[in-house]
């Protein structure tokens, strides 16, 4: 919980800064460079296959962070950044400007809406909005916002409308330590306290969160 509290303090400091640096990616250039991305993420950034994330409407700063860390994962041999056999290889030939342009383009698109099964609404809403104090689980909304829109400044992703299957896979990776590129290990700490049922409910709940 100390790591989480420290991270939230850092976040509040960032959000209170007078001005954020403008993201200097070029949307039109990004569109021209996006053909390869469409194979997995779809031509409009709404991945047709649910194991791949929707990146349309995602924060440009967050997309850029992930691309740079996928590349770092490959160049460091998995010792730093985020290692993925597909995305790390895809990010390797990208220049810094390529990554900024692609991030700007996909963030300019609209993420398609999803649905939340009725049987997970009550439990999912409680866990997302309030967490579980007895188990030391903070609310997801404290970082990702009440509507799951995240924060560009803090590089917390938009998680509403995301494919439940993808969210489930990422929470499991944070839990088992195979993904470690989160701020101060915050997601890892939280995910380790989540049961399989918690992860299933949250993933389905977020799929249709407005």
Automatic annotation (TrEMBL):
Heme c 2 binds at residues 140, 143-144, 187. Residues 1-22 form the signal peptide. InterPro entries: Cyt_c-like_dom (IPR009056), Cyt_c-like_dom_sf (IPR036909), Cytochrome_c4-like (IPR024167), Cytochrome_c_Oxidase_Subunit (IPR050597). The keyword Flavoprotein does not apply. Gene3D superfamilies: Cytochrome c-like domain. The keyword Iron applies. It comes from the Bacteria. GO terms for cellular component: periplasmic space. Binds 2 heme c groups covalently per subunit. GO terms for molecular function: electron transfer activity; heme binding; iron ion binding. It is found in: Periplasm. Residues 25-110, 119-210 form the Cytochrome c domain. Keywords: Electron transport, Heme, Iron, Metal-binding, Periplasm, Signal, Transport. Heme c 1 binds at residues 37, 40-41, 87. This is Cytochrome C. It comes from Pseudoalteromonas porphyrae.
């Amino acid at each position: 919980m100390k790591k989480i509290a420290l991270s939230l303090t850092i976040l509040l400091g960032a959000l209170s800064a007078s001005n954020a640096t403008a993201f200097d990616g070029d949307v039109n250039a990004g569109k021209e460079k996006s053909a390869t991305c469409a194979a997995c993420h779809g031509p409009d950034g709404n991945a047709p296959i649910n194991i791949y994330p929707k990146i349309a409407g995602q924060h440009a700063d967050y997309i850029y962070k992930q691309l740079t860390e996928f590349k770092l994962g490959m160049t460091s041999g998995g010792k730093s950044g985020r290692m993925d056999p597909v995305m790390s290889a895809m990010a390797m030939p990208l220049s810094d400007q390529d990554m900024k342009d692609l991030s700007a383009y996909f963030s300019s698109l609209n993420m398609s809406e999803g649905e939340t099964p009725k049987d997970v609404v009550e439990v999912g809403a409680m866990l997302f909005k309030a967490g579980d104090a007895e188990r030391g689980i903070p609310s997801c909304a404290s970082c990702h916002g009440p509507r799951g829109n995240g924060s560009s400044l803090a590089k917390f992703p938009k998680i509403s409308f995301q494919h439940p299957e993808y969210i489930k896979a990422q929470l499991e990776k944070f839990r088992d330590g195979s993904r470690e590129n989160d701020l101060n290990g915050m997601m890892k700490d939280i995910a380790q306290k989540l049961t399989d049922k918690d992860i299933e409910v949250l993933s389905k709940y977020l799929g249709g969160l407005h």
